[in-house]
Amino acid sequence: MPLAVAIAERELLPPGMPVKRLTRDWIVDGVAFLLAILVGVLTYADAFPDGPGQETLAVIDLVVGALTCIALWWRRRWPVQIAIVLGVLSSAIAFSAGAAAVALFTVAVHRPARVVLPVIALNVVSASVYTAVHPDDDMALIWQLLLVAVIVAAIVGWGTAVRGRRHLILSLRDRARRAENEQQLQVSQARDHERARIAREMHDVLAHRISLLSMHAGALEFRPDAPPEEVARAAGVIRSSAHQALEDLREVIGVLRGSDEAGASEATSTTRPQPTLDDVPALLEESRAAGMRIREQLAIEQPDALPTSVGRNAYRVVQEGLTNARKHAPGAVVDVVVSGAPAVGVTIEIRNPTPVGVLDGASRPAVAGEIPGSGTGIIGLGERTALAGGRLDHGPTADGGFRLRAWLPWPR
Fold first, then answer.
1. Domain hosting residue 364, numbered range
2. I need a labelling partner for 131 at 20 to 30 A (CA). Which of 72, 172, 259, 382 fits?
3. Residue 263, domain member (yes or no)
4. CA angle at 16 for the pair 153 and 68, rounded to the nearest 5°
5. pLDDT digits over 229-275, tens only?
6. Looking at the 3D structure of the chain, how many domains does it have?
7. What are the EC numbers (predicted)?
């Protein structure tokens, strides 16, 4: 820890609490003691020019003054108390003038203004009393008092400047610490956001793959007498879908397990390119191969100008809609309508004759072979479209079916 910060942090300690002296403290205390002795000797020589051997008062002044200089050793622990005692003694003890000045400086450094002001007043009064008792024949009393006020103001101003600098150091240290914590928080939030985005992306993919697996496995279960060619074809689709699902699962686990930013970035960089709206025909054919009956209507103007993010979100909406249709309306005809143009936006609508209350939060009894759903697919689509600036509507239709409709913005 830098020395300036360590010194400044002691300002936060409770008054009277002992602190460990640093090497700098020993040096400063030694200089302060020598300075107090020097000023005390000069003041003492001016008050008692004949020395301590001439009168008892001079001896008392010398002894008490020496003790006040020694008392400076505890000025860091009890600055106010020592400053008050030395301030009172300085009104009569000439040798204590230097020690009183050092004690006043210590109070200005370590205590706030509301504590310093009474100590200043006490020192001004004490110095005025001393000046009146020991006047200078070469200077008028008013100028002596003015000089005392200037000296006291200079000592307090110096101490206040030191205190202000220490608090500035603490403020800058705290500001830097808060900035570092905020940066770490932003990095953590960005990492969590990226992981949530990837998890949401993988949910759409895995739900699609697993629903295909379930459909083909169900076909094999209910048609054990199917021709070997159909069994082999279904088994091949199951194997391929399982392989793709495992690959997708491996990727998302690799990303979510990343404990640092570098690991997360490395895992993200290995993710395969995400599909866009151009891959919707392949998605429809894959679903048809799984036994779904789909009627599509794709009408995108200027498809080359479609932003990649919009195309990717549109693809996920179609994928989730088909997955839900396989889960909740097996064997039904699914209508997929995708249209869009620049400045108009992209509209995706998927309709199927699903019984009312399947996707809108209600429950119904499960049937044999039905694919279980987590109920978070529509929620994830809502979050996806909202983040893209679009909107999502879903619910039962008047004829007892179900409609999923999303709109995504397409800037011109």
1. 275-412
2. 72
3. no
4. 55
5. 777 777 777 777 777 777 767 766 665 665 444 444 444 444 556 78
6. 2
7. 2.7.13.3
